[in-house]
Design goal:
The protein is globular, with a radius of gyration of 19 Å. The strands form three sheets. Strands 1, 2, 3, 4, 5, 6, 11, 12 and 13 form a nine-stranded mixed sheet that branches. With 325 residues, it is of the alpha/beta class. It contains eleven helices and 13 strands. Helix 2 links the parallel strand 2 and strand 3. The chain folds into two domains: 215 residues, Spore Coat Polysaccharide Biosynthesis Protein SpsA, Chain A (Alpha-Beta Complex); 92 residues, no CATH class.
Length: 325
């Protein structure tokens, strides 16, 4: 099995200096690429000088996560492609469990390892943790992380099927990435991996979490949670994802409730003294309305009806005080 690791970079020399050495040292089973989104710093020159064995793929401009990877992966010849954030430290032998899992589970299409926090390595990391799910209203959560509640890793989550895998470290069969036409480039960044995984589920492809492979993620290295633009992308793209993938009989009712809940979130931002985030939600809804017909046209012929295991993670978390999956 030919495997490739592709790291998307945009002005990330410091991150490459810190984390690329571990990738090169511990990924001898794979060919390594850095896909550069037209960086204006010296990150490309750094990779070329220090790691000549790493192949550079150059995009003409900053295309964001979705299109950046779509363009880069057109140039990658491999059976399985690993998409790896530039702020991830990999561990010795991290790839062997992934390779073995694909070899022993022929139906596996998308796979993610255990994602732990680089700053506190006993804890799961927000973006992906032990594999992701969504509730009826499209709220994403993970085994090991619900909203801002992060669990300590006690090996409590075994390898298993999950609903979505994190874009921070995601492996996918090349043929399946092409079947899905890659990421939706209208997303630019954030939630595109959940959309990809949901579309994969709608086509009967399987997504798995592999507990025996571990990486450490810094998180928020490109856009921090405090950035209103990140709020805008998350709220808008989650609505895009619902329109594209919800079963037809749930489409109107689920989106209506979700938009009401977004309004509650906006009020909470205002009460916390974060009016810019409220404005981001309003802008997200405006963009959603402008693109509603376009997103609706992207719907597949078949939608997965049993896409959630919890009706409302908001209710179970805030009302029932259930902070674990």
């Amino acid at each position: 099995m030919k495997i490739a690791i592709v790291i998307l970079n945009w002005n990330g020399k410091e991150l490459l200096e810190q984390f690329l050495p571990s990738v090169v040292a511990y990924s001898s089973e794979a060919k390594i690429y850095v896909a550069d989104n037209a960086s204006s710093d010296t990150s490309v020159a750094y990779v070329q000088e220090k790691f000549p064995e790493v192949t550079i793929l150059k995009n003409p401009k900053n295309e964001g996560y979705a299109k950046g990877y779509n363009l880069a992966l057109q140039q990658v010849d491999a059976d399985v492609i690993g998409l790896l954030n530039s702020d991830i430290e990999v561990t010795p032998n991290w790839l062997n469990p992934i390779i073995s899992y694909y070899q022993n589970n022929k139906n596996a299409s998308i796979v993610q390892p255990k994602i732990l926090d680089y700053k506190n390595k006993n804890l799961f990391e927000y973006a992906g943790a032990g594999g992701g799910y969504i509730d009826k209203y499209g709220y994403a959560y993970c085994r090991g992380r619900i909203f801002d509640s992060i669990e300590e890793d006690r090996n409590q989550y075994r390898s298993a099927s999950v609903f979505w895998a994190t874009g921070a470290c995601l492996f996918i069969k090349n043929k399946d990435f092409k079947l899905l036409n890659g990421f939706d480039e209208d997303f630019f960044a954030h939630y595109e991996e959940i959309d990809l995984c949901w579309r994969a589920q709608n086509k009967g492809l399987k997504i798995h979490y592999v507990a025996f492979s571990t990486v450490y993620h810094v998180g928020g290295a490109t856009l921090k949670n405090s950035n209103p633009y990140k709020t805008y992308l998350n709220f808008r793209n989650s609505l895009f994802t619902l329109v594209k993938n919800l079963p037809s009989n749930k489409l109107f009712s689920v989106i209506f409730v979700r938009m009401l809940l977004d309004g509650v979130a906006g009020v909470q931002f205002l009460l916390k003294g974060k009016p810019k985030h409220l404005w981001s939600i309003l802008k997200a809804h405006g963009s959603f309305y402008l693109n509603l017909f376009k997103m609706y046209q992207k719907r597949d012929a078949h939608q997965k009806t049993n896409y959630y295991t919890k009706k409302s993670i908001v209710w179970s978390y805030f009302i029932n005080k259930e902070h674990t999956v």
